[in-house]
């Protein structure tokens, strides 16, 4: 069996979900391709293909032949270029939308209230023409592209309805005598054409904004890799080379404050490394010869030399990037219901308009052409997708705005749609359930020494140990004092002299190595603290133990209540952490969580999410760190804490700004209400079409002689849009922040 490879390629010129489906079909049917998936939200194609039968160049040509674009060079520079292009497109779309709205206003005002003023038709023609054919040109080019491939989307209906309404209006303006001779007033529909374009552009703008940040998470993850690194040759000389040129076995040197370039094993030096991007834990990890180190992590104050083991695409950071890409690409494209049914809805409407025209010609020998033409135009005007196009964006806009008031940032429609279905929530521990910042939880004294608090403060202010800041903060009010002979002992702690006496702060080994005994009472107290998720620091004088200090990452006050509320809503809650099992068990017990996994890596978090999804559970992952990014992207819904990493926020579909878990139940209630509103909007928009289209075609004419005027059809179309917007605005009046509305 031929070996296949998987690759992701950025795709350009995707106007809607139907375009994504078209490109997916083109790629999927290409010789040598075994699987293809195009994600409209991220404008990315994930393709699995046999390199012996096709190449990226072949795939690119096939996509370009269909009128779209595909980028096969995916280095950092290309990513930056694509981002700039996307920003420029959004800026231009925003400008076009604003101009369309401004130019449409006078057309609407004249068309509705001042049709009898001199040159009314000419003024409306002048204002509406640039809206339809300049600002709305993308709908006509999109419709032509779909026509070439024998498909149709919302661009097709917008182009047809606005184009025919404009042409019909121009004909009536130039040749009014034709209709007057038939006893019919020659109406124009410039305002309908202009307003439709303006409204649909607004919907496109909202959609574009929702899609805008989908690639920034990958870009920021890539930014964690340094561009160059120092390589130490066999003769001891250092040379700076690009990271991509490092090979396994070479010795790399990393200086204080620098990011590591590749994965490896320490060969020389001693330092603390911030691995929070991998483990999520805020406390840097001590590294000595023989310890494993990873690309993207940050070196502390020491200089390290390490032997490269995994380089390029094999590093743990590269694997995290790949997992995020795969997870984002595997999600179903963000499709509004209106786009899902567009391929059926559009041809049906066109067919009805054409059928009405033909039937009228044969059914009415005298005025069949006139009535048929009016019916066809009326069908296209009344079926214009304005209400359909507004149904989702307006509800989303109001829902997202309401969420922002509650401190809940919602990225897109997909996140809103999936949230009410969530039945399992997986919580990261550090920074999500807990505060993510070590603090002194308890200090127990076992002896007294003059100025002991001041001495401890002076010691810890000079210490480089990660826990020293927590102690220094706790004793900050003790006051300053001068100490001498300060020594930092790696792996043990710190010592100093005050006057002629020696003092020690560090672990148990430091105290016992200096001949200071630790009582059974102190040891039992320390063990109890350790069992309850505390780190221990001993403080002693030269002949006796003075204090035992417990340092912990406390559970946030609101976490317990939020977890209880989620459980009460019938949602299963689990906890994942890279911390040790004892700490995890203590935190889970305090937070009221029954299921947890400890000592796990980022990939294992992602694998756990996949396992839950295979069990047909709808999973939300809640985290705050870079180490959570793959799991956030893998879950059905990613929820990031706004107090955490930018990368986690970019990957997630929802962000809790304050980092308060109690906002998650509120987010669920808000999403349920928003989705309900979207469904109501779409229901009424479709009902409007189901009733309005047959009437526009003339089904009532044989019964009572009623034939709907296109002007009334335009007004009905406008009314349907107003009703959709009004229904969406009702979301603003609802209370989601509390389980019960607050009493006034």
Q: Can you give keywords for this protein?
A:
744 residues; alpha+beta; Alpha-Beta Plaits; Calcium-transporting ATPase, cytoplasmic transduction domain A; seven-stranded mixed sheet; six-stranded antiparallel sheet; elongated; disordered C terminus
- C-alpha end-to-end distance: 71 Å
Number of domains: 6
- SS field, number of helical segments: 29
Proportion of residues in extended strands:
15-25%
Number of strands: 26
- Give unreliable regions as ranges: 327-336, 739-744
Helix coverage percent:
40-55%
- How is the largest sheet built, in terms of strand order? 14-26-25-24-15-22-23
> What is the oligomeric state here?
single chain
Mean pLDDT across residues:
81
Helix/strand/pairing category: alpha+beta
Largest sheet: 7 strands, mixed
**Global Rg:** 33 Å
Instruction: Please state the overall shape, judged from the principal axes of the Cα atoms.
Output: elongated
Structure notes:
With 744 residues, the protein is an alpha+beta fold. The chain has six domains: 5-74, 2-Layer Sandwich (Alpha-Beta Plaits); 77-212, no CATH class; 224-318, Calcium-transporting ATPase, cytoplasmic transduction domain A (Distorted Sandwich); 331-407 and 669-744, no CATH class; 410-435 and 555-657, Rossmann fold; 439-552, Calcium-transporting ATPase, cytoplasmic domain N (3-Layer(aba) Sandwich), CATH 3.40.1110.10. Helices cover 50% and strands 18% of the residues. The chain contains 29 helices and 26 strands. The chain has a seven-stranded mixed sheet with strand order 14-26-25-24-15-22-23, with helices on both faces. Strands 6-5-7-13-8-11 form a six-stranded antiparallel sheet, with no helix packed on it. A six-stranded antiparallel sheet has the order 16-21-20-19-18-17. Helix 5 crosses helix 6 (154-174), helix 15 (386-405) packs parallel to helix 29 (710-729) and helix 27 packs antiparallel against helix 29 (710-729). It is elongated and about 115 Å long. The N and C termini lie far apart (71 Å). Mean pLDDT is 81; it is low at 327-336 and 739-744.
């Amino acid at each position: 069996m031929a070996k296949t490879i998987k690759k992701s390629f950025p795709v350009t010129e995707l106007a809607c979900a139907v375009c994504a489906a078209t490109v997916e079909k083109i790629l999927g049917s290409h010789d040598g391709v075994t699987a293809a998936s195009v994600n409209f939200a991220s404008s990315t194609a994930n393709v699995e293909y046999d390199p012996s039968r096709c190449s990226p160049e072949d795939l690119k040509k096939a996509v370009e032949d269909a009128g779209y674009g595909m980028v096969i060079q995916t280095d950092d520079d290309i990513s930056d270029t694509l981002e700039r292009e996307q920003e420029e497109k959004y800026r231009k779309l925003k400008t076009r939308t604003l101009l369309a709205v401004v130019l449409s206003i006078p057309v609407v005002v004249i068309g509705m209230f001042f049709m009898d003023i001199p040159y009314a038709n000419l003024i409306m023609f002048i204002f509406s023409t640039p809206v339809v054919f300049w600002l709305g040109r993308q709908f006509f080019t999109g419709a032509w592209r779909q026509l070439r491939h024998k498909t149709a989307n919302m661009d097709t209906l917008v182009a047809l309805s606005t184009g025919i309404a404009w042409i019909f209006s121009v004909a009536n303006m130039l040749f009014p005598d034709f209709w007057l001779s038939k006893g019919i007033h020659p109406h124009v529909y410039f305002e309908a054409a202009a307003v439709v374009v303006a409204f649909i552009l607004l919907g496109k703008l909202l959609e574009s904004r929702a899609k805008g940040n989908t690639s920034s998470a990958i870009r920021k993850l890539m930014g964690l890799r340094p561009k160059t690194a120092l390589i130490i040759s066999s003769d001891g000389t250092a040379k700076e080379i690009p990271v991509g040129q490092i090979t396994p076995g070479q010795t790399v040197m990393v200086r204080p404050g620098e990011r590591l370039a590749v994965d490896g094993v320490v060969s020389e030096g001693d330092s603390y490394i911030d691995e929070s991007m991998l483990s999520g834990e805020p406390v840097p990890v001590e590294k000595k010869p023989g310890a494993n180190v990873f690309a993207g992590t940050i070196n502390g104050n020491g200089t390290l030399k390490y032997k490269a083991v995994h380089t390029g695409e094999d590093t743990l950071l590269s694997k995290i990037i790949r997992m995020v890409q795969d997870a984002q690409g595997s999600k179903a494209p963000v499709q509004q219901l209106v786009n899902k049914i567009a391929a059926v809805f559009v041809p049906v409407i066109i067919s009805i308009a054409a059928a009405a025209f033909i039937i009228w010609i044969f059914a009415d020998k005298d005025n069949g052409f006139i009535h048929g033409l009016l019916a066809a135009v009326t069908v296209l005007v009344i079926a214009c997708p304005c209400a359909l196009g507004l149904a989702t964006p307006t509800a989303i806009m109001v829902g997202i705005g309401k969420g922002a008031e509650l401190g809940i940032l919602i990225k897109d429609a997909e996140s809103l749609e999936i949230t009410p279905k969530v039945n399992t929530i997986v919580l990261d521990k550090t920074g999500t359930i807990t505060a993510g910042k070590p603090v002194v939880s308890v200090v127990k004294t076992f002896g007294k020494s003059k100025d002991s608090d001041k001495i401890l403060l002076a010691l810890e202010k000079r210490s480089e140990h990660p826990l020293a800041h927590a102690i220094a903060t706790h004793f900050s009010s003790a006051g300053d004092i001068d100490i001498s002979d300060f020594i930092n002992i790696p792996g043990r702690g710190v010592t100093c002299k005050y006057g002629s006496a020696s003092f020690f702060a560090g672990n148990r080994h430091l105290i016992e190595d200096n001949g200071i005994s630790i009582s059974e009472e102190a040891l039992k107290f320390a063990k109890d603290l350790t069992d309850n998720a505390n780190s221990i620091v001993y403080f002693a004088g030269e002949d006796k133990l003075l204090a035992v200090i417990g340092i912990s990452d406390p559970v946030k006050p609101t976490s317990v209540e939020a977890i209880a509320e989620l459980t009460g809503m019938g949602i299963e809650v689990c906890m994942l952490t890279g911390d040790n099992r004892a700490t995890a068990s203590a935190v889970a017990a305090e937070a009221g969580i029954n299921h947890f996994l400890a000592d796990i890596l980022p990939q294992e978090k992602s694998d756990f999410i996949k396992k839950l999804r295979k069990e047909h559970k709808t999973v939300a992952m809640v985290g705050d760190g870079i180490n959570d990014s793959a799991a956030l992207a893998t879950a059905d819904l990613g929820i990031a804490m706004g107090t955490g990493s930018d990368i986690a926020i970019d990957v997630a579909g929802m962000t809790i700004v304050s980092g308060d878990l109690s906002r998650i139940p509120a987010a669920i209630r808000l999403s349920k209400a928003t989705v309900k509103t979207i469904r109501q909007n779409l229901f009424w928009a479709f009902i409007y079409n189901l009733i309005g289209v047959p009437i526009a075609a003339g089904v009532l004419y044989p019964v009572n002689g009623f034939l709907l005027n296109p002007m009334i059809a335009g007004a009905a179309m406008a009314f349907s849009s107003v009703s959709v917007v009004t229904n969406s605005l009702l979301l603003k009046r609802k209370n989601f922040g509390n389980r019960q509305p607050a009493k006034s």
